[in-house]
Amino acid sequence: MLNQLYYDRILNDLLNFQVSPYLKPRTQTLRRSTPEDGSAAKHFIGLSNPAKTAFSHSAIADEEEAALPGLIRMDYGENALASPNALHQSLFEAFSKFQLLSDESNCDDAIFDLVQKRLGITASPKSQLVYGNGEAPLFAALTNHARNASIAMLFPTGNYGHFVACAQAFGVSTNFIETHEKDFFKVTSETLEIALKKLNAPAWLVLTAPIVNPTGASYSAAELKQLLVVLKKYRSVLILDTIFQGLEFNTLPGIETTFSDQQDNRWIILGGISKEFAGGGLRFGYALTSDIEMIGALQNSAIAEPHSTLRYAFRRLLEAQLDEDPLLLKEMSRQKIELKDRATKLADVLNRNGWKVLTPQGGLFLVAKPTTILNRQYNGTLVSEENLASLLRQHGGVSINPPKWTGIPHYFRFVLSMQSEEFVEALKRLEKFYQALS
Ligand SMILES: Cc1ncc(COP(=O)(O)O)c(C=O)c1O
Q1: What separation in Å is there between the alpha carbon of 411 and the centre of ligand 1?
Q2: CA dist 60 to 166, 168, 169, Å?
Q3: Which of 101, 238, 251, 338 has the largest CB neighbor count within 10 A?
């Protein structure tokens, strides 16, 4: 009986893999740094300049405050919606297997089929798949190589703050492509060419696409192809982070054929399961490329591979997706409907309460610009673009990402994919905050 309870508990723990900081109320208060008398400081070597720059990036610097108890985190881009049953089933199956043969936990074919279906890439004898515990360590390995080889990285204004902070921490030269509202803050062939000309050296373009974090904009196959043409002209590489693919609100994934005739370009595709399958706590990511330098960068950095149990589970899940398992498709489409519905509700609340929203086309977030909020008073404090996120956090109880995080001037990011009660409460808090302004 005790044995049964014990294994039941372990199985539950294993299946309960989603990252949720809200499961237990936090009882401890955070330890704040205390002033020192200065004698220790004399011996402290201090942080390197790259580390100082990275740690002052909003993605890292704001984390402690944003995670304080009682706040609703609209700044945290994880997917806390229900993960599909097929994922639970495949995990259950993987854990219940007595022994796994190496073929059984080989995801290569399933991933090649997926990228073929979604991006038009056909595996060639040169293609390689490298796995990591999430996409993040794969990106870090590439960044490390960029630093060692003195390669500059290019990010659009409108980027994933943590990857910029990562590049800064490694001391990579980080450069930004100016994007415009009329283009939905997407990179165009013109803006890319301007940036590459200015840089005057081959670079690595880091693009979250087809669905963009933070705007929820969507790149078409034609737009991505145009970027590849420019990159080729400047002997530059595309790092395509596809982590939000599959979360398009209106189109079906799998109709794009971006890379079908682009085999001679230099690119690397990054993907994972944390967003589409709401599996952030299961660390699983992959990189696909046939570029020799990129393969070398990944292979030289000794990235830890996901456990074979996880690889087995992910292979089974992907196969269900490729076979168009009706139950899985239904759950995935329900998730998209829920996200789209939340985007509409949030946009409605924001547009009525001092913000101008840019309607997203997919993903887990939207961006909005404060309009009639600015230059009003909250309890005697004048609201400005600089203090808005912290006023909202301190007095409104909601954490959001400021423009320094998104990289887009004036635009803040709001995440949609928290638990449903929190989402409802967040809408109320945003309204209440606006009403309290004088
Ligand atoms: C654009 C983007 N890329 C990568 C990641 C990290 O992916 P993983 O959980 O697989 O490390 C995130 C996480 O929020 C993200 O927003």
Answers
A1: 20
A2: 10, 12, 11
A3: 238
List Cα–Cα distances, 281 to 204, 270, 332, in angstroms: 29, 18, 19
Distance between Cα 245 and ligand 1 center (Å) = 12
- 283 C-alpha to ligand 1 centroid (Å): 11
Q: What is the DSSP string of 12-65?
A: HHHH--S--TTSS---SPPPPP----SHHHHH-----HHHHHHHTSHHHHTHHH
Could you tell me if the CB of 361 is within 6 A of ligand 1?
A: no
Report the distance separating Cα 76 and Cα 260, nearest Å. Answer: 34
pLDDT score for 20: 47
Helix pair angle (135-148, 292-299), 10° resolution: 110
Mean pLDDT on 300-314: 91
Residue with the nearest Cα to atom 14 of ligand 1?
Answer: 77
pLDDT cut 90: percent of the chain above it: 73
pLDDT at residue 262, as a whole number: 59
The answer, yes or no, to whether any atom of ligand 1 lies below 6 A from the CB of 77, is: yes
Q: Is the CB of 62 under 6 A from ligand 1?
A: no
Distances from the Cα of 411 to the Cα of 159, 164, 301, 349, angstroms: 12, 17, 36, 16
Q: Give the chain's domains with CATH numbers.
A: 49-83+329-435 (3.90.1150.10), 85-326 (3.40.640.10)
Ligand 1 atom with the smallest distance to the CA of 285 is 10
Tokens of 127: 């293609």
Residues 6 or more apart in contact with residue 420 via CB below 8 angstroms: none
Distances in Å between the Cα of 49 and the Cα atoms of 46, 149, 300 are: 9, 19, 26
**Is the pLDDT at 257 greater than 70, yes or no?**
no
Instruction: Tell me the average pLDDT across 266-276.
Output: 94
| Closest among 394, 41, 77, 417 to 213, alpha carbons compared | 77
Q: Strand 412-415 vs strand 365-370: parallel, antiparallel, or unpaired?
A: antiparallel
Whether residue 384 is predicted with pLDDT greater than 60 in this model: the reply is: yes
Identify the CA nearest to 362 among candidates 281, 258, 273, 242: 242
Q: DSSP class of residue 281?
A: T
- Cβ–ligand 1 distance for 248 under 6 Å, the answer no
The dihedral built from the CA positions of residue 328, 332, 337 and 342, taken in this order, carries a sign that is positive
What local confidence, expressed as pLDDT, does residue 23 receive? Answer: 52
Q: Average pLDDT of 171-193?
A: 96
Q: Given the CA of residue 137, which atom of ligand 1 is nearest to it?
A: 11
